[in-house]
Amino acid sequence: MESGESFNKDTTGQKPTRSEIQNSKATVRLPMLLGITLAGGMLIGATFFGGSKSLNTIGRGYTKYREILQLIENNYVDTVNTDELVDFSIEKMLEKLDPHTAYMNPQDAVAARSQLEGGFDGIGVEFNIFKDTVYVVTPLAGGPSETAGILSGDKIIKVDDTPLAGKKIENSAVFKALRGKRGTDVKLTILRKNEKEPKVFTITRDRIPTYSVDAAYMIDNKTGYIKVNRFSETTYDEFKTALTALKGQGMTQLLMDLRNNPGGYMDRATSIADEFIAGNKLLVYTDGKDNRYDRQTFARIAGQFEEGPMIVLVDEGSASASEIVAGALQDHDRALIAGRRSFGKGLVQMPVTLSDGSELRLTISRYYTPSGRSIQKPYVPGHEGDYEKDLEQRSKRGEYYIADSIKNDPKLKFKTDGGRVVYGGGGITPDYFIPRDSTWQTSYLVQLYSKNIIREFAMEYTNENRKKLEKLPFTEFDRTVTINDEQMNKLIKDATDEGVKFNEKEYNRSKNYIRTQIKALVARTIYQKNNKGGQNNEFFRVIGESDDTYQKALKLFDRADKLEHGMFTYNAPEKK
Q1: Which DSSP symbol is given to 169?
Q2: What is the pLDDT of residues 133-192, one digit of tens each?
Q3: Residue 41 CA: distances (Å) to CA of 70, 173, 231
Q4: Residue 555 CB: number of other CB atoms within 10 A?
Q5: How far apart are the C-alpha atoms of 162 and 11, rounded to whole Å?
Q6: Largest Cα–Cα distance of the chain, in whole Å?
Q7: Whole-angstrom Cα distance, residue 322 to residue 332?
Q8: Which of 168, 159, 157, 162 minimizes the C-alpha distance to 122?
Q9: Among 2.30.42.10, 3.40.50.1820, 3.40.640.10, 2.170.190.11, what is the CATH number of 119-209?
Q10: Rounded to an integer, what distance in angstroms lies between the CA atom of residue 271 and that of residue 325?
């Protein structure tokens, strides 16, 4: 999702990958990842905390903790902030449980919840903090900022009479400044490129919807493509709308992209899986300490696409609710899972708002796929560092590049409806392995992103050519617009001016990728207003041309068709 006063989501902190750089992840702009990574795998509508267990043990611990806190407050040699001590002690205590039980202070809790809500009140811009300055990446189509005349590349230097710049500026401060009750006015002082004097805009805040379906379009006359970036409040409704539209355009086979989707609400995930799985088959079940949190979720509706070849893309950034969908489809032999092994998060959290507005996300159960697989990867309580380094270790083992490097536990072997072998204990292993393409990844490219060179260049190109570009239908834009050598030389000069030393060998490796990125960013800005539901179809159409995983997946529909009809019996993963 690329909308709102927010940064794009990140996933789990690995080195920059194709999809991270393609979708402007960590190396493009600092992400607002807190709400996304902590949201994955939430169970909503669960029975609230209860039970009849004695509180004596808890009471003794509470008394001891209160005594120590009081002694510190009254007698410690220096003045201390007891609120900070409490927050720190809670965080350290939770480390003894599991990697996904988490505590958030009130400010972080609000930011996290907003990532899964259907919208917020604000001015409708996507922003980026670069060099201690807030840049407008894009005003949202039809939003208050676009209506007022805000452009991509504008620098927001003041909000009302308060400066919005400096080394300590953080995304939370920008959220606080730009968001507010709908109907209220906010005055922005803007510095526009090539203009010496700042401009002042008065913008009336309004409801800004947020979206989780990034793209939904027909690749050809029979193949549909849907990309889901998380499972939020509105995801199922967005997905149903997209699926209906594609079927109306003649779709008979579907490529669903869950790469770098870190999860969200479990019930939205199962509702989407239900659109593809016929009858009343089991979709997922959860198992907790007692039966309060034990659930079985079955297919219950006549879905829109229960027949037809289907491929689901996953990678190491696909977690939690994404794994629920992929696991159900794989276990019932409904879809061919392609890509790389998923993250491996099979723990379910219940969000509990505390009295001061802070939030505890407590693990209450584990979830299991229909075949009985727990997808949670191993962890040792109190050793979060090792857990967090798992993706780094996968890279060192070569797992992103060689299928044989995936080490499944032979003791955790399960079978799909059709008898194919699948494994538990650490993510969804794909049926068809597609290695990460690193041919274009260079240090020079990473520096271009870290200095924001590519995005700045794309914004400048768009603004200089906007009138001409807006007259072109996308098919003509895609056919005729190319970032030529002269323009690429200008980008090199811009980079050099910003301190990025030119490396000809690395530049030649990354050159075609850079061209595609610039063109995709331009397409997004020009055509975004033509899309419904916050989708960036033209951006992903352009990106798809150089997306190796996407292109290889399109060649697998014959296998997906055989799988659907029970004619494809290989064990996961097939190695190619």
Answers
A1: -
A2: 898 888 887 789 988 999 888 899 999 988 887 767 888 788 889 988 999 999 999 998
A3: 37, 28, 9
A4: 9
A5: 33
A6: 75
A7: 16
A8: 159
A9: 2.30.42.10
A10: 9
Neighbours of 304 (CB within 10 A): 14
In which residue ranges of the chain is CATH 3.90.226.10 found? 213-437
Which run of H or E residues covers position 138?
Answer: strand 133-139
Looking at this protein, which amino acid is placed at residue 62? Y
**Which residue carries 């996308």 as its tokens?**
474
Q: Residue 18's pLDDT is what?
A: 37
**Res 120: pLDDT:** 82
Q: What is the pLDDT of residue 165?
A: 76
DSSP labels, 498-538: TT----HHHHHHHHHHHHHHHHHHHHHHHHGGGSSTT--HH
DSSP string, 360-375: EEEEEEEEE-TTS-B-
- Give the per-residue pLDDT at 469: 96
Bridge partners, 190 (sequence order) = 156, 199
Task: State which residues of the chain have pLDDT below 70.
Answer: 1-55, 118, 167, 568-576
**What confidence tens digit (pLDDT) does each residue in 95-120 have?**
999 999 999 988 788 777 777 776 78
- Consecutive H or E run containing 563: helix 557-564
Put residue 279 in one of left, alpha, beta given phi > 0 → left and psi -120 to 50 → alpha.
left
Q: Distance from CA of residue 143 to its chain's centroid?
A: 23
Question: Known catalytic residues?
Answer: 320, 331, 345
pTM, entire model: 0.85
Q: Tokens for 84?
A: 């900070």
Cβ pair 263, 230 in contact under 8 A:
yes
Strand runs labelled E in 162-291:
162-163, 185-191, 199-204, 206-209, 213-218, 223-228, 253-257, 282-288
The C-alpha atoms of residue 360 and residue 347 are separated, in whole angstroms, by 15
- pLDDT, position 425: 86
Residue count (the chain): 576
The CATH code belonging to domain 213-437 is 3.90.226.10
What confidence score (pLDDT) does residue 140 get? 80
Q: State the amino acid at position 250 in one-letter form.
A: G
Q: Which helix (H) or strand (E) holds 351?
A: strand 347-353
